[in-house]
């Protein structure tokens, strides 16, 4: 980790504080180009937006997919206050971002939060393969 990485990571932590001050969960992220110039910053807004997907990492991945060509995206670095969740990690991968630098790991975050009891949705499948493959086959 370079001094520049630390500075940008501290900025992401500051954005997390700003999210919390705004009544949202304390997560913040920014996306920097290959030279370290900040392209865009985001805060968690799941509560104020009433949108469970309003994570800063997801917002940045969407922005990058919309605004950057794949080569430019691959040269970016996302700095984020916490390790991206599964939803955000998938979006980061699909946006072809080059690197993610995070402050807190998921394990570290878990020690700072009260335990959560979540029941997962029941998944039934796969099913109807022959029918489901028709719109997909040949697309990729």
From TrEMBL:
The protein, known as: Nucleoside deaminase
Domain of life: Bacteria
Pfam families recorded: dCMP_cyt_deam_1
InterPro entries for this protein: CMP_dCMP_dom, Cytidine_deaminase-like
Signal peptide: none
Species this protein is from: Sphaerisporangium corydalis
Domain CMP/dCMP-type deaminase: 3-123
Transmembrane intervals: none
